[in-house]
Specification:
Distance between the termini: 40 Å
Number of domains: 2
Shape: globular
CATH topology of the largest domain: Rossmann fold
Number of strands: 5
Keywords: DNA-binding, Phosphoprotein, Transcription, Transcription regulation
Pfam families: GerE, Response_reg
Order of helices and strands: EHEHEHEHEHHHHHH
CATH superfamily of the largest domain: Response regulator
GO molecular function: DNA binding
Number of helices: 10
Organism: Streptomyces monashensis
Strand order of the largest sheet: 2-1-3-4-5
CATH class of the largest domain: Alpha Beta
Strand content: 5-15%
GO biological process, one term: regulation of DNA-templated transcription
Length: 223
């Protein structure tokens, strides 16, 4: 079954370019387009896409609010949101991640990265490129905890190994990279990540990364 993709951007030429790239892939199918957040909500309900490629700044309803409604508790389908951004709009990306986006990608990313990002998000993983994640978090370091504050009580429900895994997830590492770092199997890492999400009441790895920074467990710029 092909991955069903909805394109949301207020620039028709960009949507056309994305459509040409995606329709060249046998496992991807563009099922619709929208020029703003309100249209995106209607299209999600009507077309039931697997992944929404979401611009941030749009008329009528921006991508952050649209993402919040698409992925929120009243969601009407399984759609996941992949946000498109440029670095001059980083603050919106942070808000989109908090709203429920499964990841973000630069608008000028190579075609192969765009295609791979959609596949990753459709599979239920998070698209958190480590270099982009660190630049975002470093830029907003002054708005995040210093690491000296008391950690939330919920964090104490994690085992030491689960805390290690959460820190590595926050750095943007994949399961394979975490497995190599901790000298364990990828299956073991997946199990630990699942326990972390369940214990902390989080939906996915993106929320886990945001939690790690907002709780002060991980400090921006730390390795």
């Amino acid at each position: 079954m092909a991955i069903r993709v909805l394109l949301v951007d207020d620039q028709p030429l960009l949507r056309t370019g994305f459509r040409m790239i995606l329709e060249a892939e046998q496992d991807l199918a563009v099922v619709g387009e929208a020029g703003d957040g309100l249209q995106a909500l209607d299209q999600v309900r009507a077309l039931q896409p697997d992944v929404v490629l979401m611009d941030i700044r749009m008329p009528r309803m921006d991508g952050v609010e649209a993402t919040r409604q698409i992925t929120g508790p009243d969601r009407s389908g399984p759609a996941k949101v992949l946000v498109l951004t440029t670095f001059d709009l980083d603050e919106y990306v942070v808000e989109a991640l908090r709203a429920g986006a499964s990841g973000f990608l630069l608008k000028d990313a190579p075609a192969n990265e765009l295609v791979q990002a959609i596949r990753v998000v459709a599979a239920g993983e998070a698209m958190l490129a480590p270099s982009i994640t660190r630049r975002l978090l470093d830029k907003y370091a002054t708005h995040l905890p210093s690491g000296e504050e008391p950690v939330p009580d919920t964090l104490h429900t994690l085992t030491d190994r689960e805390v290690e895994v959460l820190k590595l997830v926050a750095r943007g590492l994949s399961n394979a990279e975490i497995a190599a770092d901790l000298f364990v199997s990828e299956t073991t890492v997946k199990t630990h990540v699942g326990h972390v999400l369940t214990k902390l009441g989080l939906r996915d790895r993106v929320q886990a990364a945001v939690y790690a920074y907002e709780s002060g467990l991980v400090r921006p710029g730390a390795q």
